[in-house]
Structures are given as C-alpha cells and as structure tokens.
Write a structure and sequence with these properties.
Number of strands: 11
Low-confidence stretches: none
Order of helices and strands: EEEEEEEEEEE
Number of helices: 0
Radius of gyration: 13 Å
Distance between the termini: 40 Å
Shape: globular
Strand content: over 45%
Helix content: under 10%
Length: 113
Amino acid sequence: QVQLVESGGGRVQPGGSRTLACVDAGFTCSSSALNWYRQASGKERELVAAITTRGDNTTDADSVKGRCPISRDHGKSTLYLQMNRLTSEDPAVYYCAAPRLARGQGTQVTVSS
C-alpha cells in the first residue's frame, strides 16, 4: 500500500527553522522521485522542492531558493525538507508526493511570534 506520512509541522518564529519529514510507510516510493508541495490558504498549490530517485539532483522554487534544502534517506525511507529563515510568506500546509503514486495528508506550518 502506498502511504506517505508527513510530520514536523507546527508554529515557528519568524527567522526560525523547522525540519519536515515524510515517511514512505508503504516502502513503495524508493524508486520514485519525490516532491514537497505547499498550499497556503486561498492560494494555489506550489511545488517547493524536488529530488531525484537517487537523491543526486534537487531543485527548489524561487520563493524558497537556497533556504529549504530537500534530502532523502533511503535507509529510513524518509524525505526531508529543512526550512530555514522562515518568513510570513511560508505558512502553508506542506505535502510530500511521489509523482503519479501518492501524496501525503500534509503538515501545517505557521510562522508567528
């Protein structure tokens, strides 16, 4: 069964950091590229970052350029998004997804002091 489960969301102060994790609980996405998306209230879904199957190439959106590195650990079947220097533009529900396979339920990130 394909199942992606996110964790790590919560409230962060402006300028702070947060690490999101996405576990491939069904162990079915190890051969897939993986993405992090986010959707803020009233806005369209945005692709935040992507990583290849082997983890040797990554891309990120201009809105988070250089602030939110994506990584994966095949041994732990886990995808990560390290979010740094968070701003008022970053609050959203963050989802992980394996293209054409699965998407998680999302984890909420809020930024406030």
